[in-house]
Amino acid sequence: MALTQTAYSGRIAALASMAGLALSISACDMVSGIFGGTPEPDKAVAPSTYGSPCLESYGSGVSSIAATADGGREYYISTELPSNVDKNAWGRDSRAVYEYDVKLGRVRPIASTWNSEVVIEPYATVDVLRPTQIRPVQVAEKLEQVQVGADGKRIVLAVSRKNLSGGLASLYSGNVPPTGASVSLRPGDGGGLAVVKLNDDLNQEAIQTFSLSPDGNKLAAIVGDLSELRGYDLEADKIVVYSLGTDNAIEVSNELPTPATSIEIDRKPAITANGAQLIWAPDSTKIAYATALGIGGWAVQILDFATGKPTLVHAFENTTQPQIAWAGDGASLYVVSTLNSTSESFGDTSIHRLTAAKDGKTIGGVGIIKRQANWKTVPSFVTLVGENMLLFTWEKHVFRFTAEGGDLTKATFEPLTEHYPRDVKVLAQPIYGSAAADRAVFSISAPGIGNRVGVYTHLSSAKCPVPTPKE
């Protein structure tokens, strides 16, 4: 059911009253967005190089990154102040979205923190120690994550809000401004961004995680306390909800369900996947994910976006949560899992390639990465580059696993970021690799500088080439 602005504001006011939300109306708490001024032109960026000519980085205060499939454009959220924004209105939670053109080596801002449309109107209170504010207050939205379609045409931005805990408050979708255009995206009429009505954020229904399809036309997300998997068709502008009906048959609807915020509401989502990464197939019709299966067990499944039908590909026992990447053929999956050991925290790591079908069959054997002494983490955020190269973060570095000819048993395994200074760390966040650009981007933390966009070039080279000295 759609809410009018009055009802919208009223429900927020009720939430604030019940939670005892303390809100100030000082300038520091009012987050502004487009403040006028001359749009900032593209500016040249000279990446820093660390220890190796293949290791670069740029940006500051970076919290999220994304990239196009061809590696030609990269996007990041940063605390850097755009030149067209008044610095006096730029608060500690203010952030901007930047686009980096790899070929030109130039960066431009395409969005900055905006005024939220959520407004808390003055409301009555019985607590004299918590009187109502004397004027309406806008709830600040904070830019948290960015994702783009493979071709870079569509962008999705996720925000958090002070009045909602447990995840992201809202998603906004729009078109990336044309190259060279000085445009600052924002929600509302003429702003270029529209809210994706995937959740009921007024009833504390947060988004745990989300994933934009390669074609940029669909979204999948884990929503609410039930960790419900929902979809959204951005082209048709409609939600896709999977529920259990009679005899546990999966029913697909296009209406936002009433959030399960009390025992009086009996929601029966067809798919729940707490903590799962949602990995889209290359053709944007299916989603792979892993869900817990008893104690120490995990089920790798594939969801058909249109029907909501899940298919069990493989069940793993006594392992950590599997990390998944679709193979380029769209008919098989790479799955990385680590043995839970009784004698130490973790055992060896296995890499499988399985057919993307019921009871998936193994392709190319099983790759084994022996456990290294003193390693305390497991691989995360696996991504495929080209036909046979997997990248993942592990022990605060980026590693490459390459299976020439598809034989996983004879694959090579090596760190790419080993020449970083010891105090520079790769963060456990998604990696974006491009065979076309022969580069990978990821997030790093450098002391004295903060979080940056990390870059590794010459991905296809066995070793980083040493530049030829100029005569």
Describe this structure in words.
The chain contains 1 helix and 35 strands. The longest helix has 15 residues, at 5-19. It starts with a helix and ends in a 14-residue tail after the last strand. By secondary structure, it is mainly beta. The protein has a domain at 77-271. Strands 2, 3, 32, 33, 34 and 35 form a 6-stranded antiparallel beta sheet that branches. It has one helix spanning 5-19, and strands at residues 43-44, 48-49, 55-58, 64-67, 73-78, 96-101, 106-112, 119-120, 137-138, 141-148, 154-161, 170-175, 186-187, 192-196, 207-212, 218-223, 228-233, 238-244, 250-253, 279-280, 286-292, 297-304, 310-317, 323-326, 332-338, 349-355, 367-369, 380-385, 389-394, 397-402, 412-415, 425-426, 432-434, 439-446, 450-457.
